[in-house]
Amino acid sequence: MTTRIVELRRGILKKNDELAAGLRARYGAAGVLVLNLVSSPGTGKTQFLERTLRELKARGARVAALVGDLETDNDARRLAASGAPVRQINTHGICHLEAEMVSKHLEGWELGNLDYLFIENVGNLVCPSSYDLGERVRVVLLSVTEGEDKPLKYPTMFNSADAAVITKMDLAVPCGFDRDLALRNIQEIRPGMRVFETSAKTGAGMEEWLDYLAAQRGGRGPTELVAAPAQVSEEKQNPSAEAPNTKNEPSFRPHSGERVENHELDRASAALKPSHEQATPRFATPREAKEFLIEWIDSEARRVGAPLSEVERKMLYSSKKGWTLPDIADVQDAFERYHDPAEYEENMGKLIRGIRVSARNGAKEEYEAWTEAVRVLSREDHYLLELIAAAGGVRQPRGGRLGFWVAAVVFCGALVAIALWMNR
Ligand SMILES: Nc1nc2c(ncn2[C@@H]2O[C@H](COP(=O)(O)OP(=O)(O)OP(=O)(O)O)[C@@H](O)[C@H]2O)c(=O)[nH]1
Ligand SMILES: [Mg+2]
Question: What angle, rounded to 10 degrees, do the helices at 383-390 and 341-361 form?
């Protein structure tokens, strides 16, 4: 019985991971930075997010949010006060959001019209850590009222996050919050993790947080972002369109309702147009190209039923001078201790060759996206490039084509010889 439950759970997680990989690729193609906010109930996710949405909008950024709760649309109503498009996801008893729920609630939204999409997860410090939502950045929040030991008690949640936010700093003194201890505990679980000390009430720490968000979007600060498109401003003028959507109707539509799906398809294919037809390149920076390639390798590993461990995936980010992860030294340390480099490189070679085959046999745009990413990344030195080079050339080997022509000539010659012999 227990084995069956474990197997069932594995199956659910596998399905979720596959859907999340698809979402991640979709977010990447649309150029939207997606963040997943996790914490225990009442940490201040909604208040912090509302302030974030408001301040990003004031800087000209295009933002939207999904918010998960077991019941009620209270949080969506609060977030909608920021003026951003918001949708509530009610999980009715499930203690976390899943990729499928997110995917369903994104229907009708034109992701290409967004700079940031925030997902406020259900308040819980255990379940959400196992469910990938395709986000690029997972943010764990911890309030000064919860106790400094939470990172030690819930290590998986803190270990799977990319950044931490300490909330309600305005209450730190009356609560006797031990800041140094909290920071030490976070670093013990996730060395090198970026931590923001904030108060959504006073605005403390928000500047630093907003700068971090801009940096995560590849260094493009909110003030440099393109102005919000017409349809977003139209919604702004129409308060009813901004109200939280409990009936699952799109509150943020690119065009009229019936055209939503087609328009989304148009956008998706435009993002994958060959570079010579594209007004803007697919990858603005080597970092974007690198993330695209790593995501593809990661999803290929899942596809073949051998998902990469966190260390294996993170090793792909190694670089001497180019952009890499802040905790890469720890990753390399763990890799050296527990992995066989030759075996790892052989496995990566197999995955890369598998990707090339499916990209070559799939849509032309996919193949071009892969080669363009490699070309953009080649501007810098990256371990990933060495792995790609070691996996062999991208063209069909000359020998293969030559073999085909030799076989064809021999076959035709044999046919002619048989015909001549029979006519004798
Ligand atoms: N003093 C102070 N109170 C805050 C701050 N942020 C949130 N709160 C209060 O903390 C309580 C919980 O905040 P929420 O934003 O609802 O917390 P949450 O994490 O979204 O809660 P769930 O969605 O239920 O998990 C509310 O009463 C907020 O007013 C803050 O920075 N300072
Ligand atoms: Mg909330």
Answer: 70
